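Session log. Operator J.P. requested a structure for one protein chain; no other inputs attached. Running the standard single-chain path with token output.
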Amino acid sequence: MGGRPVADSVGAAAFDAIVQIGKAAVPTLLAIESDNATPSAVRGCAIMALGSIRDSRALDQVLAALRDEDLEIRRSAGLAMEGWGDPRAAETLLRVARDANENQQIRWYAIDALCDIPDPRLVEPLLAFVKDERFRDTILRRVPSRDPRFLEPLLAAVRAEPRGRDAACAGLGRLGSPRALDALLAVLHDGKEDSGARFTAAEAIAGSGDRKAIDELLRFIERGRGKPHSLPNEFIRALRSSADDRALDRLFAAVWEPDFAESAGSALKEVASPRAVSRLLAVVADPRPYPLTKLYACAALLRIHDPAAVGGLVSVVSDRKQTSDNRRLAIMSLQRFEDRRAVPALTEALKDKEAVIRKDAASALGGIGNPRAVEALTRLSQDEDKSVRAEAKTAIEKIKELSLE
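Structure written below.
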């Protein structure tokens, strides 16, 4: 369950634009939502935008929308509450969740939103919902705190056949206690052909930070290599959630190993630890031709968005011994970083002998929008290559537009 039920009908682009405005848009959105003459689709869009902005001024009005006569408005309000995490919403959300006459999806949204509220008083009500199979997996997967009262229901779900194991493994990972980690290791070793649960267990162990459990996971990966049904590729992919240096070293080594290259390479795009930045830069700069893997590494760098990555990417752009593909990926990434430190290297790249490098550098400078690049781009607008000339002129226009904002 999920999605943007009403906002989609108004248009994703309009919704995203409103959210980008942020808190300044809240008074207008509140007025739109409260106007009875406003079409339901527009009210729903306003509610969803308020849920994304999460300004405390909007909380009461979004909660009131949970009691609206219009099912779609209630659905939008329920989805808007996910991730809000304000304890003041607990009473209303519990009332909605307990209402047996309410739409099941809206009850599910309310329970999911309750899992975001860090209040120990909600543990017992949530445990009561665990008994309902319609909502059990949501709560077990989203265990909202390290409260030990969740441990026994999670252990019981892990022993269940087969439903509930995957969600319970995710919850045990969030719990992170020694007994929870022991249960996750047991799932790895139980030999059941339950790939979802075993992968989730491996990912939870990788992200736990527990040295002993991570060591066992790494040994398990090596022992399973080449054996049928051992899922070593899945377990390699699970290492993406780790901030542990040994786990990261194993994942990045696997990028170049034939047995693991595809799984490890695709896992890179979801690496989130700043500790991986230097390793990701090394993948981008590596001379071996693995274009998709390098694209995934760039995606991870953008996701982590650590300023330390800019210097490494600049080095790739400036190194004429690098392959054209590597340099183009680095240029593309620098454009997305929008960091002015990249301007000198990108300006120098406008003089490159390869037209495609000149063109990409011009595009990146236009995206960054630094006026210091205009002089060099003006010279480039007389380039011998037609596509380069066009890109230079476009970049100049973009910089001028940004300077007027």
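Operator note: Residues 1-10 have pLDDT under 50 and may be disordered.
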